[in-house]
User: What shape does this take?
Amino acid sequence: MRKLILGAAAIGFASLISQGAVAACGSITIADMNWASATFMAHVDKVILEKGYGCDVSIVPGDTMPTFTSMNEKGEPDVAPEVWTNAMRGPLQIAFDEGRLHAANPSPITGLGEGWWIPPKTAEEHPELKTVLDIIEHPELFPYKEDPSKGAFVTCPAGWGCQLTNANLFRAFNMEEKGWVLVDPGSSAGLNGSIAKAADSGENWFGYYWSPTAIIGKYKMVPVPFGVDFAGSENWDGCIVKPEQECADPQPSSWTKSEVQTIVTDSFMKQGGAANDYLAARVYPGPIMNGMLVYMEDNQADGADAAVEFLTAHENVWTPWVSADVAAKVKAGL
Amino acid sequence: MDLQNPPMMDRQELRDLKKSIDLGFRDFSRAYGEDIEAVFDPLLYFLVWLEKLLLAMPWPVVLVVLAALAWFGARNWFVVFGSVLAFLLIGYFGMWKDMIATLAIVSVCTLLCLLVGIPLGFLMARSDRVQSLITPILDVMQTIPSFVYLIPVVMLLGIGKVPGLLAVVIYAIPPIVRLTNLGIRLVDKEVLEAAEAFGASYRQKLFGVQVPLALPNIFAGVNQTIMMSLAMVVIAAMIGMQGLGQKVLQAVNNQYLSLGFMNGLAIVALAIIFDRISQAYGTRLQKHLEGDRNA
Assistant: This one.
């Protein structure tokens, strides 16, 4: 019995080696972060790199900080497709400077970020509400159920960083004087539910959310431009994101730009060859990404299912990312 | 035959089933959400009114009312002083507003539970069939994880006081129903026969004999219902119900130890005050009856 197992292992190992020898870019690992869009991207990368570039890809689970640390210290995994860099700008910059990590793609998804949103119906019925500055003059359009004389602005659940940000922006835009209340939805389920309910029943809704997410995609929520410029990082990082008592005089500002990058290790950068070009070229348009997240949620699909769906349904999106030859190989491999 | 895996519905079919349930509920809430909301509007107005009233009252008045209630319920100076002191401390630590919000909600919840629960208990005690119908429903209400019904409640009613109130009522109503039922069923058959012999009608039997004799059990139910609504306050805060629960949630999410403990202890203080007053009132009622019976 033991011999048998050993034999099988040996054969398996041999086949692994031979595969590696055939592969143009060797064997690589991709981090599969624990949120939907990152899982989806990891699996699309896996299919394209395997079928199109002959890499031997394995997927490893990850999360922002552990994956970053592991990539930085151990050079494993090789690729992190979707890293939100706002919270870790400092250490990441050091890793970039030291040449241990590289940004293979500085913005793999367009139209992403945090901000204030309204449902499409509101946007359609009130075309005059172009910016946050317009909306805050009309609290009567967004009545607060518990005090209909006020307008409701739905913020983040307590404990999320964005709750502080929203509270300070609320003050910066003088919204209390204009007749608004900050409504705490209590939890992410509460926040999602309040959007779902408003969008389903055609009510007006005004509040915080972020993209890419299934909620934004499903209800086709419309981001509202703030109508003011970004008032500088001193105002943002030194005041807006801090607790109220540490932010005496918040200035109106648009939301800071969220940055998402695809990050690769130095060894992948050197050995990956053409795969790097693919990573640099693949940019998901925001609506397509949101659409895929909706697909995943509606069908309770995992990343692998979603990758196949994307590659079959959105050829016009991904074929320009690769050469015609590679595209043909990927299509044949599906 | 595959003995490792039990027979399972086809993945696709299962997915379709889940999807159709979700879509069905969404259509339902789109179609009737507004009407259902309208049904609950009076409740919301009452809640908002009560909270505003309590907040508008000068704090000494609130304390006097509290002391009077405590005296009326417990007839015990210790309970009266303890309640007033607890409220003063809550105010001193800056939790007055949240405490009032919680107090308003819990009072309304309890009232609602009693209004619905006690008659339901009467019905159950009257008919075995009703009992066998309602008991499993109560079991479900008590054991189903609250998060499960928070989702449909939010989809129907949005976030805020009313959905929070409903979530609390679902969780807190079973004990009063069960204990009312139990209390009435435990009344001696012979006592009832005696009442019947005197020609008592159903109503006379119920309110003249059964309810008074069942009071200890009914009061235990009231007490449990109050405790359970207070315990639910934190969960209901997850769908935007304001008050002490929200602060506890905030503390949990931020790892604010002191904020969590203060608000948590404020909930405990409210619970103990409610408990002592209602319990003492219950026992007093009972003693009074015993006196009557012996006389």
Observations:
- DSSP finds 16 helices and eleven strands in chain A.
- Residues 10-23 of chain A have pLDDT under 50 and may be disordered.
